Give the backbone structure.
Amino acid sequence: MCCVLLSLISMEIAVPEMTIRTPPPGSASCSDLFQLLLIQQSREICCQTGFTDLIGCLAPRLWQAGTMAASKSKNQSSLALHKVIMVGSGGVGKSALTLQFMYDEFVEDYEPTKADSYRKKVVLDGEEVQIDILDTAGQEDYAAIRDNYFRSGEGFLLVFSITEHESFTATAEFREQILRVKAEEDKIPLLVVGNKSDLEERRQVPVEEARSKAEEWGVQYVETSAKTRANVDKVFFDLMREIRAKKMSENKDKNGKKSGKNKKSFKERCCLL
Ligand SMILES: Nc1nc2c(ncn2[C@@H]2O[C@H](COP(=O)(O)OP(=O)(O)OP(=O)(O)O)[C@@H](O)[C@H]2O)c(=O)[nH]1
Ligand SMILES: [Mg+2]
């Protein structure tokens, strides 16, 4: 069974609306692969029954299911899992950044994304963790399914291209959508990323303009180049740190409440003589 599954490790499973790229050899476990096969099977059912629209709706759920399964195996191997979503207009370099981070390669060709999902084990401040990256479509045709994607994310890289002012203006709308979808959450881990910093001669967005917007939103602004790899690791690792800090403070709150409750019930059990 394992041999058959291992032969699938570097295979790319492509479907009309979503691609799941398996981790490079050595980093995929059997349970990861089993999940991928399950996901693939569900999608095949959708394709065969002609419900291709369903895939758009199911993709984020399937991603969630996949990451939930990873959380389970995470518990077994006690690995934390951080779920990151790439957001921004079409052509700003979301896929290029993701592929550079995942595989240390720069893709020159532009192929608009529908939705791609990636998983990698990394060492974050000395601790081995897993990162799940959902690379979403910037193209407007897919705007309707963004809500579903955003709901399942724990942190966001809000990407624009420094060579296209319109893509910078669009970040405000993307941010609004994230805040609306995650309205019940306090502080959402998010970084504003100005990509294509290697194309300085074509810059349309001044650093100061982007920085002051990020300050207004209370988030970090970082310029990257998927081509030269400048700051690529930084944005993913800084975001994971923010996600981890949020989870820790939420756990602290929960535990605080629990012990508060215990104190009350202890008091309630006492009576004055
Ligand atoms: N010079 C330079 N080109 C880049 C950089 N990042 C991306 N590109 C190029 O810009 C084009 C679009 O990049 P993608 O990563 O496909 O853009 P995207 O944001 O994923 O686009 P959608 O999938 O449509 O949302 C490609 O031709 C890339 O090679 C960069 O940092 N520097
Ligand atoms: Mg893309």
Notes: Residues 91 and 110 are 7 Å apart (CA to CA). The domain at 80-250 is CATH 3.40.50.300 (Rossmann fold).
